[in-house]
Input
Amino acid sequence: MMTAGKTAASRRRPKYAVVPKLERWRVWTVLGGLMLLFAGLLGRGLYLQVWNEGFLQDQGDARYRRVLKLEANRGMITDRNGEPLAISTPVQSIWMSPRSMLILPAGQQRAEDWKPANDDELMPLSLDEVKKLETHLQLKSGELLTKLSASRKNAQGKAIKSDFLWVKRHISPTDAKKLMAMKIPGVYSQTEYRRYYPAGEVMAHIVGFTDIDGKGQEGFELTREKMLAGKPGSRTVIRDRRGYIVEDVSTIVPPQEGQTLQLSIDRRIQYLAYRELKNMVDSSGAIGGAIVVLDAQTGEVLALANAPSYNPNSRARIDPAHKRNRALTDLYEPGSTMKAVTVAMALDAGKVTPQTVIQTGNGTMAIGPNRVKDDHAVGAATVETIMQKSSNVGVAKMALMMDRESKWNFYKDVGFGEAPHTGFPGEAAGRIRPWKNWRPIEEATMSFGYGMSVSLMQMARSYQLFAGNGEIHPVTFTKLVAPAPGKQVISAKTAEQVRKMLEMVTLPGGTATRAQVVGYRVGGKTGTAKKLVDGKYSDTARVGSFVGLAPISNPRLIVAVMIDEPSFAMRYGGLVAAPIFSNVVAGSLRMLGVPPDAPTSNIFLPNTEAEVKEET
Output
C-alpha cells in the first residue's frame, strides 16, 4: 500500500520541478527603496513642519490674516494765539475687491436671497447696482466699470488682476453710511482723515497742503511732516474670502497722534496783510506781489502773504505759478531800499555823519564809461537829505569811500548772499558776487540796490539793524518763549541815526509820504527798480517796494512790501507799496495794543506826485 501510494504521488509530481526562491539581493533592494522613500517622506515632513514652518505659516496667514492700518490723526497747526490753521477731519473712503466680484450681464439681477454656496463663489454685482453706486458717489456714467475693467472677473471668466480698488476717497460719513445701508456686495468703507484749512488762500503759502494720502506737499505741512504725521497703529484680524472680519487675532496697537505745531503767525495780521496786498495787486495790474511782517523785537514772522494765491482745500489742479512763495523764493534787485543799509555801513565805519555834506552836482556822476544818475538833482546835501531825497549819486559816493572787502563782509553780516534759515522749503539765498571781481561801477550800483539779488524776507530781516540797538536776530516762523540771541552788526547810535532818516523819508519832502499812519510815527524806504528781461533792463517793467518800521519811537513791527510789474503809471514804490505798509501797520498796531506815539493830526499828504518818483 505504501509502495502503491508513493508511486501514485511520484507520478503526480514532475520529476525535475523547480522550487521558487527569491534571491537575497532583491529583497534588500526593495526593502532599501521603501526605507529611502519613508526617509524622504519623513525628511520632507520635518522640513515643512520644523525648518520651513515660518513659510507655511506665512502662506496660511496671507490667505486669511490681514493687518489693518489704523490712521493716526495728523497734528493741528495753529497761529500764535491758538487759532487753528490746519485741522484733520474724519472722512470715509469707499473701496471694492474686484477679485471676488462677478459683473452680471445686462438685464440679469442677483437673487434677493442670494447666499454664497462656498468660499470660492464670486459675489454677483448687477449693472443696476453699479449705476446706483455711480449716482450716489457722483461718478460719471460708466466710470466705475472703467475702473473695474482692468481688475474684475467678468461673466466670461476673464482673469482677475486685483483684490483692492479705491472707488471714491474722502466722502462725508453721512454719505458713506447711506451707501453702506444699500448692502451692495463687495463694497466697503474705511475711515481716513482729510486736511482742512480754515483760512484758505490767506494762509496757503505758509501752511501748505497735503495730498490725498495725507502727506505734506508744500509749506510747513511738508517741512514738519514727521512731527505732524504721527505714527499709525495696527490691528491684526482674520477675514473670510468675501472680506468680512471674523475675529481679532492680536492686541490692537493704537496710533500715536501727530503733535501740534504752533506758528509765530498772527492770523488777524495775516488776513489784513493778504487783503491789502491782493487789493493793490488787482488794482495796479501787477503780475504778483508779496509782504512780510516781522516782530521787530524777536524776529518772529507775524505775517507772510503772496498774491496770487490758491485754495489749499481744493483738490483741483493748482497753477504752479500760484504756489510760488514769492517772499522767500523769488529774487529781485531791491533798488533804493538798499540805501538805508549803505548809509548805515558808512556811518558805522566813521566815513560820514548825518550832517556830512556830499556834493551831488547836477545829479550825474561818471564812473569810467558809465554814469550814475538821480531822478531829481539835490546838489550839495547832507547825508540825511540824501536819504530823504533818495539820491543815487550821494549814496554811491558814500559806498566808494570804503574798500571792497569791508563792504562785502558787511553785506554778509546783514544776511545777504545766504539763506535766512527760516526752515521753510526752497528759501533763496540771493546773490552777491565775490568782492575781488567788483568793478567801481558795480560798487556804486550795489549801494542803491542794483547788481545784487535778494528775497523780500532778506530785506525785512536787514531792517532789524534799525529797529533796536543794531542787532540782527534769526527769523523764525515758530512762536518763541524768549527772543533768540542776536548778532551785533552796527552800534546802537548808528541804528538811531538811520531810524531818524527813515522817518524823514515818510515826512513832507520824502518819497514815502503815503506810508504815514494816523497816530504813529513811522519810517522806511521806497524802492523802484527796473527788471531784467532777457538779460537787459526793461524800459517798462518795474518792481515797486517799501521796507519800514513802526512806531519809530520804539519799533514793534518791520513790514516789507514788493509789487512785481505794476502798470507803468503805478510803477513807483511810493505809490504801490507804501500805502500797503500804512494800512497794515495801522491795523496791526491797534490789534497788538501798541499805544500811539503821535497826535492824530500827524498826516501830511504829498504836495505833488513828483515826491514819490524815484527810479532806483
User: Anything to note?
Assistant: Residues 152-157 have pLDDT under 50 and may be disordered.
